[in-house]
Amino acid sequence: MAKDKKKKKAGKSADAKAKKGKAAKSANPKSDKQKPAEVKSKLAVATGGSKYKVSPLAPNGFPDLPLIDGVRFAADAVGVRYKNRADVMLAHVAAGSTIAGVFTTSATRSANVLDCQAKLARLGEEAADGFAIVVNSGNANTFTGQRGVSDVEAITKAAAKALKLPEDNIFTSATGVIGEPLPAHKITDALPALAKALDAAAAETAARAIMTTDTFAKGSVATCEIGGIPVTIMGFAKGSGMIAPDMATMLGYIFTDAAITQDGLQAMLSAATKGSFNAVTVDSDTSTSDTVLMAATGAAGNVPLASGRSAEGKAFAAALDMVMLDLAHQIVRDGEGATKFVEVRVTGAKSARDADKVARAIANSPLVKTAIAGEDPNWGRIVMAVGKSGATADRDRLTIRFGDILVAENGWIAEGYQEDDAAAYMKARELLIDVDMGLGRGAATVWTCDLTHAYIDINADYRS
Predict the structure, then answer these.
(1) What is the pLDDT of residues 423-446, one digit of tens each?
(2) Does residue 249 have an active-site annotation?
C-alpha cells in the first residue's frame, strides 16, 4: 500500500510539473516541511543549465524517472563556479545496499576519483549503514595537490556527520575546470541543509546539478523482471566535451531496487560500460574525473543476483545495457557544438580489436568530423582513417557505405555511385558510416558527432 501511495504522489508531482513548470513535489509530505525556507528558495532556481543553445540532437524533454525505494536526492546552488544554478548534488542510499563503480584510466585523475577507488577496494559486501554520493560541478578538483585531497576529506567528513554515516561510505565526484582550488567550504556549509532536503522525487534536480557545458539534463529508465518480481533501473549522467574512452569523459549515477551482490553488481556495471560509455567519443580527449557509480538497494525483494550469467541476470544486464547506452548516446547528442549524431559500424575485420581500432580512427578523425559538419560525403577521409588506424587492412577488399548508399568497394569507387545521393544523405541529423574490411569476422560500433566551429567557441571561453 505504501508503495502505491508513493507512485500516486509521484504521478501528481509529474502532472503538476508538466502543467506549471515547477519542481516536482516530494513523495513524502513531511519532507517539504523539513526544508528550511532558504533551501526551498534555492532549489526553486537551482535547475542547472548552460548558456549555450540546447543541442538540436537533444531528446524531447527529461524522462519521468520513477522513485527508487531507498534512494533520495537533493541539490542546491552554492556558487562553486556558477551563479543561480544548481552545482551540488547529494544522493543518499539506504542501509543494506550494494555499490559498484568504474572510473577514468587517466594518469592525472582527480583526488575524488582516487578516493572513490580506494573506498570501493575496502568496501565489504554491503554498505550496512547506507552510503551517500556528493557531486559538485564547475570545478574538477584536479591538479590541486594536497589541497585537493584535503578538500575531499573535508566534504566526506561533513557529509558523514550530516547523514550519520561512516566516512568510508561517502563517495564524491567533481567536474569542471582543472587546476583551480575547490571552494570546499561552500559545499560543506550546504550539506546539513541538503541532508534535510533529501527527497525521493528530486532525481531531475540532481541531474541538472551535475551539468557543466551540457545543454540538457540526461536521464534514462528501464524495467525487467527477476523471478517474476518487477525491478527498475534508472540513472542520469552529464557529459558534453572531453568525451573519449577509457572510460568516456562523463559522470553517471545509476540506481536500482534490485537485490544484487556487490561482486555481481561490479561485474555487470563493468561489462555494460564496454558497449556504452566506452563506445562513444566527441573529441578523443579523456577526462581526469570520469566516474560511474551504481547502487542496488534490494528493496524489490528478489533473490539477490550474483552475476549476469543466469536467465534472471541476463534480463537485468540487458535492461542495464539499455539505460547505459541511452545515456551514452545522449552524451554524444550533446557533444559541444554537435549537429550530427553518427554511428560508425565496422565489420569484416581480422579481429574485434582491429575493428575497434578502425571505428575509433574514423570517429575521432578531425577531417572526417569536419566533413560531416559540412555535409560533405568525402569518403576519401574514411579510407585515410582506416589506413592510419594500425589495424590490418587491404584496400582492395574495403567496402564503404553511407547509410544504404554503396560508396566504394574492391579498392575503388562503386559503379553507379552518385555524389548527389551521398550529399543529400549527409544532410540528415543521424548518419551511419559502414565499413566492411573484408578480412574476417571482427566487428565494432562507436558513436560520435560532427566537429563544428561552435566546439571552438565553447572551449575557447570555458573558463571565462
Answers:
(1) 999 999 999 999 999 999 999 999
(2) yes
